[in-house]
Each structure stands twice: as C-alpha cells, then as structure tokens.
UniProtKB/TrEMBL annotation:
This is histidine kinase. It holds the Pfam family HAMP. PROSITE patterns: HAMP (PS50885), HIS_KIN (PS50109), RESPONSE_REGULATORY (PS50110). It comes from Dyella telluris. Residues 163-215 form the HAMP domain. The modification 4-aspartylphosphate is found at D537.
C-alpha cells in the first residue's frame, strides 16, 4: 500500500513543483514588465506636462507638477532637471524612497511647439516595486497553500486507491495464513477479471486441491493407524506367546535334562572302566551342549518376563575377571589359545551376577570364533567417571553387513571355518542378544568394532567408585564335603528324584525324597531330628508350591522360632510373579539343569548360611 500510494503521489508532487517553479519567475517578470510600462507612461506624461513650465522656468509650477505626479500610485520619487542637470523640482511619492525596490525611468523634455530646439531638461521617475513584490509573495504563498492542499488530497486519493488495489492481495495473504494454520477449507472472493482475478481463481483451485489431498491423507493415516494398531496388537500377542512358549520350554524341557544331568554324573561317580567312562564323558558333553542351548533360552525368557532383578553392589572388577578366567582358561588352553585377563585395581558399581554373565558370554563367543592368537580382557579408567571394559580377540572378525544385526535374537554369523565345537556347542544366536539386554538393564550398551580377518572388540562402560577396604576373611575356607548330611528332596518328577537320590547318596548323604507335602511330612518321620537341608522344586503337582511345603515343614518342627533346617529351591520357572515369591522369601535358588558342582556348592553355602544365622 505504501509503495502504491507513493507511486500515485509522485507524479502529482513533481507536476505541482514544476508548475510553481515555472510560474513564479514568469509572474515576477510580468510584474516587472507592468512596473516598467507604468514608469515609462508616467515619465512620458510628466515630460509632456513640464515642457512649457520648464521652458519658461516656472519653478513653482514644476514643483506642483512633481508633487502631483508623486501622488500617483507606485511612484516613489519625481525629479525635474534642467538641461544643465540642475534639479528644479524633487518630490517623494507616497511609495517611499527605497531605491533597492524601485525602477527608474528618465525622459527628456522637448518643446513640441518649437521643433528642432535643444532639450529643455529631463524628468526622472522612480516607480516602487515593493507592492509588486508583495503581490508576488502573496501569490507564491497562495500557490504553496494550493500545492499543499492538492498534495494532501492527492495523498488521500492515492492511499485509498492503494487500499483498493491491494485489498485482493491482502485477502490472498490472509487466506494463505489460514492454510498455514491448517484450516479445513479456504476460499477468496473473485473481485474482477484482471490478473488479480486470475490469481484469485488459481488460489481457490489450489486450496480446493490441497483440501482434497489433506482429506485423502487423513483417511490413509487413519487406515494406517488402525492397521498399525492391529499389527502392533498381533506383535504383542506373538511376543507374549513367545515368552510363554519359552517359559514353558524352559520348565518342561529342562526337567528331563536335569534328570539326565544327575544320572550321568551319578554314573561317573563309581565307574572305573575307561571305556564306560569315555562313553559317560560323551553323554556329559551332549548334556552340556543341551544345557548351553537351554541356558540361552532361559536367559532370554527371564529377560523378557522381567524375572531378572538388578542387585547393585560395589565390588572390585578384578574379582569378576578372575572368575571368568577360571571358567575359560582351560578351554582356551585346549584349543591352543591365550586368555589374558589384565589385572586391575578398579572398583565399579553394578550387578555382579549380570556383569559376570556379560563377560562370560563375550569371552565364550570370542574363544569359539578364534583359531589362533587369543582373547584379551582389559579395563581402563575414563575421564567421565566410568570404566571402559574391552574384550579383544584375534578371530575371524565380523563383516560390516552383519555388525548391525549380531545383537538381534536368533541371528548367527555363519563362519564354520574358525568356529570350535560346531557340532556340540553350536548356539542359537541368543548370546549377544542376551548380552545387550543385560547391558541395558545395567544402564549401558555394548559397542562393537570389527574388521574381517583382524578380530573384534566389544566394549561397554560401568560406573567407577573409589577403591574400598575388603573385609578380612578369618579361618580356612570351608570344604565341599557333604557326607553325612541329611537331605530331603521334594520334586514331582520321579526321574529327577531318582537321579538326585543316586547322586547325593554317592556323596555320602542320607537322602529322603518326596513328591508333595504329604510325602515330605511322612519322610521326616523316619528322622528324629530335622533334616540338615531341604531341596525343593518350586512348582509341584496339582498347583502346589514348594514354598508351601517348606512352610508346612516349618510348622511341623516349630523349634524356638528359628528355621529348623537349611533350604534350597531348584526350578525351571521363569514367570516373574513366581520368581518374586522366591525373592520375597529370601531362599537361595538354582535354575535347572543344575550341574553336580553347582549343586554341591549351593548345598554347602545354604548349610553354612543357616548355621551362621543360628
């Protein structure tokens, strides 16, 4: 609008200015010309009137003539002079004697009655220009006032014209803003048939097309949202079904595996024949391979069902390194590899069990895919208050296309040429997925760097704490001799009861078995004293819980309010609600299948803990 008004106003301003600039000098010249003519006329008339008195030298008459001429308008002064220049009459007119604003005219006086005679004298008439200049200034003021009024009027007309011209554009701008705000349908009025009208019609067409596209997209988004919700529900149902399947498989399939573990271990206890021992060793290797596969499934099931609870503690990292070294040093030596756990004095705050499982999986995976060289585990202090743990290997490495998926469930990189124990310990592709899940529970993430043919490095960070004083250990470590211990075993699987009875008996234990609460109470009647330890499955037949059986045995003995016996739960259950019951009861728990070494250590740990509390 401002630009349109300025464009409209400039021609008027220029025209008026030029007119004033041209007419003012012209008017001044006209006024001067009029004054010049007036002065010449007065001088000519004065010269004609003064001829006779000047010839006769009638001074009084000359003075009277000068005064009468001075009374005329615009006359400033009149002088009558003789031929020799003597001033015979001098009269000031009514217009004053300011010669700076006057025009002087001189006329010779001749005797018209005597032609040919010399000039009698002269008449000098001064005509004042002051009135003419005043008239000129008044005219200029009037012109300027008229110019100002015309400019104001032109500005008003220009502004209104600009508003009228720009109104369609403003409406288009407002309509565009409405579109930007997401209004449903926007339309502007078509005001004329000019280019502006074409623009308005084009905008209306574009707005209508955009509205149709928006409605189509909304319908598509709504349909996609419904479809996504349906697929999400299907995925959630599949995830729940998978978790339930894994939980059922972890319990039901591990039951016979646990029994097989017990029987194979019991067979090896008293066997001396090398041939049979070799066959038993092959059976145990197959059992270990099955145990490895089921352990992967169990860990995944426990992670997905939320059964794994974090227990944050502060401990020296080197203790975990030593534990991992004891687990895998012999395996590394069997394959001609070096396992280096770099000693460290750093302390961390984390869950020790989860951290051990992460390092065990990473070291096991590194040894499996390394044919020469070895594995290095090292910890470094970072400047951000964390400790970085690196697991290096000199194995076959992982190609770039596999690196983004190695942490996915059931994803394996096929590399049989460098893989040890392919037939016996071939995993399900859950090891690294479990590692990443455990790391996320510890509020960290495992990172991978690898180059095919040059090995890999897995890294993660842990919170660092200042080193602390370790509690002193007094006395020798307790032995794992369980001979003479009275053990009550409760399980609803006869094969498991038979196998564990055979194994514990071979260790010198006095064993009683039961399948439910009634049989458990009946079995204790053969002993005068409570059993030293009760081993129970969590889930028994007919929905009965091992915790209920332990509570019934407690009520049966009722000795001074103290627990009358040690207790240990062995289960393949992964449901979070069941596991929370165990955690609330503060009873040690092992997950099937349990190796004989784990069972022996757990027996002694539970028995020693019970004696310490008593």
């Amino acid at each position: 609008m401002q630009r349109l008004a300025l464009v409209t106003l400039i021609p008027t301003l220029v025209t008026a200015t030029l007119l004033v600039a041209m007419l003012a000098p012209q008017q001044l010249m006209t006024l001067r010309g009029m004054a010049q003519n007036t002065a010449e006329a007065i001088a000519t008339q004065a010269a004609s009137v003064t001829a006779v008195p000047l010839r006769d030298m009638q001074r009084r008459e000359l003075v009277r003539i000068a005064e009468s001429i001075g009374d005329l308008p615009h006359v400033a002064r009149v002088q009558i002079r003789a031929a020799d220049g003597e001033i015979l009459a001098d009269s000031l007119g009514r217009s004053g004697s300011d010669h700076s604003e006057s025009l002087t005219v001189v006329r010779d006086v001749v005797d018209t009655e005597r032609p040919g005679q010399p000039v009698l004298g002269s008449v000098v008439v001064d005509v004042s220009l002051r009135d003419a200049i005043a008239m000129q200034q008044a005219s200029l003021r009037h012109a300027l006032v008229a110019l100002a009024l015309s400019l104001v009027l032109a500005a008003i007309i220009a502004w209104q014209a600009a508003r009228w011209i720009s109104a369609p554009l403003r409406r288009l701008v407002n309509a565009v803003h409405q579109l930007g705000r997401g209004d449903r349908h926007v339309e502007v009025e078509v005001t004329d048939q000019t280019e502006i009208g074409e623009l308005q019609r084009g905008f209306n067409s574009a707005a209508m097309a955009l509205f149709d596209v928006q409605r189509g997209m909304e319908r598509e988004i709504e349909h996609a949202t419904v479809e996504l919700a349906r697929k999400n529900a299907a995925l959630e149902a599949a995830s729940v079904a998978k978790a339930r399947f894994l939980a059922a498989a972890s319990h039901d399939l591990r039951q016979p595996l646990y029994a097989l573990t017990l029987f194979s271990s019991a067979l090896a206890e008293d066997e001396r024949d090398p041939v049979r021992l070799d066959r038993i060793a092959h059976i145990q290797e197959c059992v270990e391979a099955l145990d490895h596969l089921f352990s992967e499934l169990l860990d995944l099931s426990r992670l997905e069902t939320g059964a794994m609870q974090i227990e944050i503690a502060e401990f020296p990292l080197d203790h975990v390194f030593q534990e991992v070294s004891r687990n895998f040093r012999m395996i590394a030596e069997q394959h001609g590899l070096r396992l280096i756990m770099r000693a460290t004095n750093l302390w961390v705050r984390s869950d020790r069990t989860m951290l051990s499982r992460i390092l065990n999986n990473l070291v096991s995976n590194a040894l499996r895919y390394t044919s020469h060289g070895g594995v290095l585990v090292v910890a470094r202090r970072r400047g951000d208050g964390t400790v970085r743990v690196d697991v290096w290997d000199t194995g076959s490495g992982i190609a770039a296309e596999h690196q983004v998926r190695v942490f996915d469930e059931f994803y394996r990189v096929e590399c049989h040429s460098n893989e040890h124990d392919v037939g016996r310990r071939r995993g399900l592709g859950l090891g690294l997925a479990t590692v990443q899940r455990l790391a996320e529970l510890l509020d960290t993430r495992v990172l991978l760097k690898s180059k095919p043919g040059h090995g890999s490095v897995f890294s993660f960070h842990l919170p660092e704490i200042p080193p602390q004083q370790l509690p002193a250990h007094h006395g020798p470590e307790s032995s794992l001799d369980v001979s003479g211990m009275r053990v009550l075993v409760i399980d609803d699987e006869p094969a498991i009861l038979s196998g564990i009875r055979y194994l514990l008996t071979s260790w010198g234990c006095e064993v009683a078995v039961a399948e439910d609460r009634v049989q458990a109470l009946q079995a204790t009647e053969a002993w005068n004293l409570p059993p030293d330890i009760v081993i129970s499955d969590l889930r028994l037949r007919d929905g009965e819980s091992g915790l209920d059986v332990l509570a019934a045995l407690d009520a049966h003995y009722q000795i001074d309010g103290h627990p009358p016996f040690s207790r240990l739960l062995i289960t393949g259950e992964t449901r979070s609600d069941r596991l929370r019951e165990i955690m609330a009861a503060r009873i040690p728990v092992l997950y099937k299948p349990v190796s004989p070494e784990q069972l022996r250590e757990a027996l002694m740990a539970a028995w020693n803990a019970s004696r310490a509390e008593a």
